[in-house]
Structure formats: structure tokens, C-alpha cells
Amino acid sequence: MTRGLVIGKFYPPHRGHKFLIDSALRAVDRLHVIVCQREAERPAGELRASWLREIHPTANVLLIDDDGFDPDDSELWARNCRRWLGFIPDLVFTSEDYGERFAGCLGSQHVSIDRARHNVPVSGTEIRKDPLANWDYLEPAVRGYYAKRVCLIGAESTGKTTLAEALATNYQTRWVPEYGREVSERMLEQNGKYDWQSQDFVEIALTQCRMENRAARECNRVLITDTDAFATSIWHRRYLHRRSPEVEAIAKSQRRPDLYLLTDTKTPFVQDGTRDGEAIREWMQGVFLEELVRQQREFEVLSGSYEERFRQAVKHIDIILMMRAP
């Protein structure tokens, strides 16, 4: 059985790495991939390793800490690799200048893959600097991490869903509908009235998070969402007149949107058969605003006509799309 090795930081994994690993997989019976991590790196090593396991399910992916290791000491790295693996691989695959020297110290044959980066002209440094500009070099799992997320929130009948759809069309991307609306419509159809229980909001929050995280992998640089788990916690207060620690914990554990767009209430209330909160729209708006400020979530308020709200939203989204990674 031929055993191979690919080693690197994969910081983050990109399609150049995929080309390297796919090439290695075709050449050996069993491929081992070592992911090197340091504590301060973001995305963290565990996440990078999990992405590689998803992208290359037949490879054996190992995660190691390389804090304090001299990157130019090939003999040290060879000794450590023998210890981590428990054997000497037959082939070592790299796209780096150090590959021949490292393989020699390890006692393996070196296979150089696309050293000049002709097939995939990108580097991890370039991606970390500007992931959105290098979007086409990222796999869906990695895109979900780097995608900008914009969430529309607000009281009933303030145009959130219409605006979310329009923004998704404008940016040629995905948007996530409000799962709570689906639940409320089903409740009305089955019972003829609302009979909310706290567990309903837990289900809504969890499902909304799953829908959002799945759509982030498929979006085009920015994901538009019509509500999120944070908003669900407010709706719990609106219907059950108390906070839900469980829903709020879900909201806290979920990645925060890069921007909330809060639609104001200066729009006509349109009854669509499911709405019952016209009298408390101002209260809802006040709670949203209070919690956004208290939890230090980034937000902008949209006001005016639909066309004015759309233009404001595009202006704010364009700003976050132009921001480079820190």
C-alpha cells in the first residue's frame, strides 16, 4: 500500500490546496494530511481541519500545534512527522520550494505539484487579506465562514421580506426567509388561532440558524436574511411576555450578522391574514432598538419610501462588502 503526505497550514483551505490534495489522492492508496495550527490564527486550526475532512473525506486529516517550530528546520519537521504519523510516508506532495529538502530528511520521495501556481493562482495570504475578491478560489464550506451576513429585522408589516428579496436579486445572491412565518401559518391553518409555546420559539431559532448557515455556503459574497435567532428572542417576548434564556443562548451562540437593517414603522400596516400586532408596532420597534444597542450589534435604521429604504440598504451593504478582513 502506497502512503502519501501533504502538510501545511491551509490558512485557509482554497482551491490550490484542493488541486494539490486531489492530485496526491490519485497517486497513493492512503493519503495523510497534516494541518499545522497556532493559537492566534483565525480561522482556527480545528475549523480548517474540519473543512478539509469535508472536502476530502477519504484523506486522513491530522491537526497539530506548531507553536515555536522553526519553519525552515526541515530535519525537525521530518522528525516530528515521523512521530505524528508513526511511519515514513512513501511520497510527500508539496507546492513549495522546501519540498525536496523536507522529503529527503523524511526519507520519502518528493512530488512537486503546480509549484508555479499556474492551475490555481492564489495564496492563503491573499485570501486572508481579501476573501471576497478571491471568492472563486474558495470551497462552499470556507465561503460560509467568509460570507458577509446582513439581517433585516423590524416590527410587523415594515417591508422586510420584500426588501430581502430585492436585495438578494440586486447582489445576485441567496436570501433566507423567515421560518417563524411558516410556523405561524401552519399554526393558524391547524388551530385557527395562535397558541405559542416557548418550545416553538426554540425550534424556530434553531431552524433559522441551520437555514442561514446552509445558505451562507451557497451565497455570492453576501447573505441576506429575513430575521434571525436574535429577532426570534424578541418575538418570544412579544407573544409570551417574558424572555427565553434558551432562545437567547441560541442567538448568542450563532455568528452575529455583520450588519442589521432595522426597518422603521412609518409604513402602512397591511393585513395579510397572519398579522395581529398593529397596535404594538412601536413597542416592538423600541425593543429591537434597545436590544441592538444593549448587545452592541452593528445596525442601521431604514426609513422613508420603499425605494429610499432600498437605496439606503444598498449603500450600507456596499460599505461592508468593501471592507477587507482585519
Spatial order of strands in the largest sheet: 3-2-1-4-5
Q: What string gives the helices and strands in order?
A: EHEHEHEHEHHEHEHHEHHEHEH
Shape: elongated
Overall mean pLDDT stands at 93
Overall radius of gyration: 25 Å
Helix content: 40-55%
The number of strands is: 10
- The CATH architecture of the largest domain comes to 3-Layer(aba) Sandwich
Q: Would you give the CATH topology of the largest domain?
A: Rossmann fold
CATH homologous superfamily designation of the largest domain: P-loop containing nucleotide triphosphate hydrolases
Contiguous low-pLDDT stretches (5 residues minimum) are none
Structural class: alpha/beta
Major sheet details: 5 strands, parallel
Q: How many helical stretches?
A: 13
- The first-level CATH class of the largest domain is given as Alpha Beta
Amount of beta strand: 15-25%
From the N-terminal CA to the C-terminal CA, the straight-line distance is: 44 Å
Tally of domains: 2
